Every structure is written in structure tokens, then in C-alpha cells.
Amino acid sequence: MNSLEKDCTSGLPLPACENVTIVTRAEWGAQPSKEINYMGTPVGVVFIHHTAMSECDTQDRCSEEMRTIQRFHQVDRGWDDIGYNFLIGEDGKAYEGRAWDRIGAHTRGWNDVAIAFSIMGDYTKHLPNDAALNAVQAMIECGIRLGKIDADYKLYGHRDVGATECPGQRLYELIRTWEHYGRVGSEPPVKPTPIPFHSGV
Ligand SMILES: [Zn+2]
């Protein structure tokens, strides 16, 4: 690991995933996290978000978008880092945010028990392309294989637990058809107990 990569990641090593390319923080030109807090895994909850900002379909454009979103979250919002664990582009790649083990800033009240994937774009009126949707599924499968996501995980949209349109009406309708969608009727989801973090030593 070179020094630039070390400065940019400041986290645990990022294993590769099958069927999806992960663009690391060093590759998209991340600023370092201001502070890092780890959570225990495997988490039992996965959230789907959209960024409600620009779509992107090449690594260059998605990397630029990642830098824009990180600046927005770190500078304007004052958060430690880009909020989501991973972001997904319509280039079919996953972009490393807080990655698997770091507590994010994506879903108020649930950040320490969930991993969040956010598809770059606004999916109120149309769906993300298949490349992006396939990348989300591949990342969830990878998270299970790596022991970061429980095989019996429940999947929600951001709006299931917060007053927001996120992840956009069309994308929300789609994820409600996915096998692991966890909400039954109008009952609010119940937050699981956080798992203590162990460094794996
Ligand atoms: Zn959201």
C-alpha cells in the first residue's frame, strides 16, 4: 500500500468482490475521513438510497461525482466523510465510501446497524440501468460472503425509516419486490441491537 492510498483509506483493507469492480477511495480521489468509527458485522440491515444528484456512466464522471458528494457531506453538512458505505454508478461499478466496517451517516438512527448502498442519480421518475442494479446485488452477495452482511438480512429503502422520498419512487417500487425487502404492511421496521466491533485480531 503506498502512502497516498493509506492517507485516503484510513480504514480496513478492502477485499475484491466477484461480478463487480470496486473503485477505491484512492482511485476516485477521496479526501481522508475526519474521524472513523467502526461497527460490528455482520449487519442485519441493508438500506438502498439514491443521491438525488447527477447520474454518471463512466469512471471519470462517477469519480468526479464522488468528489462532489464527499465535499457536500464533509464541508456543507459537516460530516466526517461521505455518508454512504458504497455508492453505485451506472457504469456498473461500486465506489468505496465508508466501506463495510465504518459507521456511516446515511440513515438517521440506523447508521450503526446497517450498510447503505446509494445509487448515484435521481430515481423518482425512472429506474437506474441494469448495470447499476446488478452491481447492488453483487455487492450484497459479496457482503454476505465476506461476513459483513447477515445472510438473513432485511432490506429497506431510506423512506421506510425516515421522512424522505429517498430512494426515489420508481426505485422504491422496485426494491419492494426484492426477496429480502423487510417491511410487512405499514408496520415500522424494528431496529436490531448493534453488534460490538472487534478488530478481528
Ligand atoms: Zn437516502
UniProtKB/TrEMBL annotation:
Transmembrane segments: none annotated. The keyword Endoplasmic reticulum does not apply. It comes from the Eukaryota. Residues 20-162 form the Peptidoglycan recognition protein family domain. SMART domains: Ami_2, PGRP. Gene3D superfamilies: Peptidoglycan recognition protein-like. The keyword Transmembrane helix does not apply. Signal peptide: none annotated. Residues 31-168 form the N-acetylmuramoyl-L-alanine amidase domain. Keywords: Disulfide bond, Immunity, Innate immunity, Signal. Belongs to the N-acetylmuramoyl-L-alanine amidase 2 family. This is Peptidoglycan-recognition protein.
